[in-house]
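Data deposition worksheet. Section B asks for the primary sequence of the deposited chain exactly as it was used as input, without tags or linkers unless they were present during the calculation. Section C holds the resulting structure in token form. Section D is free text for depositor observations; keep each observation to a single sentence. Incomplete worksheets are returned to the depositor.
Section A, Depositor: J.P.
Section B:
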Amino acid sequence: MNLEYIKDPLIAFEECRNIADNIDEPVLRRVALQVLEENKEKFLIIKGSDWEHHNYAGGLIVHICSVAFVATQMAKFYGNSVNLDLVRFGALMHDVGKLFDYSPQTEYVNSNVESINRALLGHSVEGVSYIMSKLKEAYADDSVVVDREYAIKAIVQAAHCIGAHMDNFGACAKQQMLEVLIIGCADKVDAYV
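Section C:
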């Protein structure tokens, strides 16, 4: 990714795909690419939030792209102290729950209607549930050769990155890993810029 801010949803989507392709851990890479592909149409038309940031059609994927880029750069700075694959995956998936929060935005800037899911659960909970099911399915695949403890740890850590990325505001849990702290910081910066 070049250092210019990406505003076009289609370009942002392609950059997210490139970031996912650079995940070395095979299951995390496969699930990230699968989630992007299965939800491409939604990513290109759903906004990032109601009022605070990226409130336009495709704003969600533009925001995700920015967060993934910034979080990746931060993680690289801290070197071996951080699991770069987990940061990339978590940053790409941190707001995936918003796919279930909004109806597609096609006509008006504020046309997305709040879902019952959003009103009662919020995107962190929805994202955790969605990604955990995708990861469990992927790790259960016969072609994946990892021990059970590794798979459980990977699923829980990925879920933590999604569920705790907002820290106290709307989070499912308190941030307990450096990876989720990095994702949360990148998220805040992009939301406020």
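Section D:
The radius of gyration is 16 Å.
Residues 106-113 have pLDDT under 50 and may be disordered.
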